[in-house]
Amino acid sequence: MTNTKIGTSEQLKDPNHEIPFGPRTALGIQHVLAMFASNVTPSIIIAGAAGFAFGGEDMVYLVQMAMLFAGVATLFQTIGFGPIGARLPVMQGTSPKLCLCSDHDWYR
How far apart are CA 92 and CA 97, in angstroms? Predict the structure, then answer.
């Protein structure tokens, strides 16, 4: 199955090939929405395990901080500061692995 609307197979193998604006925009929006969901979900799970009310002030604060620091980390990776950062279009966020710690009593 080939989709010649975005390029031939040889063009798609070329890292310098630019796909048309329409598909590029759709893929960009899909990428941002996937990043948003994967960044918010661990915050909601951890807030629930901590006993915060769903939609409560503490949970909202936790989600906002996750989004803020994901944005700061994305800027560090994309723009780069000195030797820090990949200088590539990379989106950073929280990890669902943090949720593993929220269900155990090892911290009590």
Answer: 14
Q: How far apart are CA 53 and CA 50, in angstroms?
A: 9
Report the 10 Å Cβ neighbour count for 66. Answer: 21
pLDDT tens readout for residues 4-58? 677 788 888 888 888 888 888 998 899 888 888 888 888 888 888 888 888 899 8
Distance (Å, rounded) from C-alpha 9 to C-alpha 28? 21
pTM of the model: 0.65
DSSP 16-80: T----HHHHHHHHHHHHHHHHHHHHHHHHHHHHHTTPPTT-HHHHHHHHHHHHHHHHHHHHHHH-
Tell me, what amino acid is at 5? K
Cα(53)–Cα(48) distance, rounded to whole angstroms?
7
